[in-house]
Amino acid sequence: MRSGNQSQAAGSGGVKKKMNGYVGFSNYPNQEHRRSIKRGFNFTLMVVGESGLGKSTLINTLFESKVYPTKEEIATSSAAAAAAAAASGGPQAAKTVEITSVSAEINENNVKLRLSVVDTPGFGDSINNDSAWKPILENIESRFDAYLAQENRVNRSKIVDNRVNALLYFIKPTGHGLRAVDIEFMRNLHNKVNLIPVIARADTLTPQEVEQFKARVLADINFHGIQIFRPVSDQFDDPDTIADNKAIASKIPFAVIGSEKFVERADGTRVRGRQYPWGIIEVENEQHNDFVSLRQMLLRTHMEELRDATDIALYETYRTQKLLALGHVQDNGVFREFNPRQQLEEEEKVHAAKMQKLEAEMAAVFRQKVQEKEGKLKQSEEELHSRHQQMKTVLEKQRAELEEKKARVGSVEHAPVSHQMGVQAEAVVPGSKDNKKKRGFF
Q: How far apart are CA 294 and CA 196, in angstroms?
């Protein structure tokens, strides 16, 4: 039912009307709730850290499900793989970072969660870990590329979203701040994924050591400009939500422990925790560790914010950079009003400028062709002139030789007879060997 009381205000876009009374669109969150229950949710979580920090145990504890296989099953499969490699006789490959994925469907109160946990066995286990972050970064970017390729398809009805929504980075409890491998990893991946630092095996530190270690880790993170995910409140949050967000933010980095076993306290209550000679550490006790705060932020209160941050901020930034690198340019004129006549005049100006540019290019090409042709003709003319001069020189030389021969022949023919006989007589000298031969002397 609509109320007849309406207020009108002239704005830039027209007349705005304010409706008093119940219209019905306030029921839209309930519609979204029903649709979400039908479709279910997807969540991809990546865990990174050295071996032996309890990553698989913590994941199984978070979801209270056997997402990861037990240590015995892992040991059996590893032994089988090693035996197969030894039987094949092949060389043992160097230990590198691998990317493995485990999927599980969890149902809680008729709400389905399709969970994908991406593990990185081998990270930090080598002697030189300078490039250990590269395979992980390539895997995250490949997931972005796969989603971008699906968005660019003609039929986008079935898009599979396997982008990483959150990354739990397990910090070794050294008590001395972040190591070089930790800083290098966070600096190269903090702008590609929602980074959540976690101090693993917090039961190896005293409460005072945990607080000091947290302060040093945060100091290193702030010094190197590393962006981590923090819960943020806005104007729509109630006071309780704002207080919870502040409490969760104060726990970062989360010092946690995990356990898949239940132990019995002195009062007979069974709790999830670890039994030590000096007492029991309870996983879900906020005075013992930050496991409850981590699960509160990751699953109960900020799961959708993690998904939105991945989609709206991280993926959009990567998508923009990717398309700009491929030469795509955003046309901002599409999103504003325009005058058709003015647009036509602008297009005519652009076309005229384009034609003028083409004419200038054609004139320049024509001038270049003419210059090349003139140069070739000039070169041919110079070669012909050079050949003409050479032939002229040769002919002049031959002419001079002929004139000289002609002059010698003419002088011999016009000489006196006595002079010619004298010359012949002189040719036979008395007493010479030739004259004796003519007279018969030997």
A: 9
Q: Please provide the distance, in angstroms rounded to a whole number, between the alpha carbons at the two ends of the chain.
A: 166
Q: DSSP secondary structure string, 4-61?
A: S-EEEEEETTEEEEEE-S--SGGGHHHHHHHHHHHH-EEEEEEEE--TTS-HHHHHHH
| Rounded-to-integer distance, Cα 195 and Cα 252, Å | 11
**Whole-number Å distance between alpha carbons of 95 and 78:** 13
Q: Please say whether the beta carbons of 237 and 305 come within 8 A.
A: no
Neighbours of 62 (CB within 10 A): 21
Bridging pattern class, strands 262-264 and 166-171: unpaired
Mean pLDDT for each 10-residue chunk of the chain (442 residues)? 45 59 81 87 93 90 81 58 52 65 88 91 84 93 94 85 95 90 94 95 92 95 94 87 93 92 88 89 91 94 93 93 80 62 86 93 92 91 91 92 87 62 50 48 40
| Interatomic CA distance for residues 310 and 316, integer angstroms | 8
User: Which sign, positive or negative, has the C-alpha torsion 296, 299, 304, 307?
Assistant: positive
Distance CA(185)–CA(134), nearest Å, equals: 9
pTM of the model: 0.68
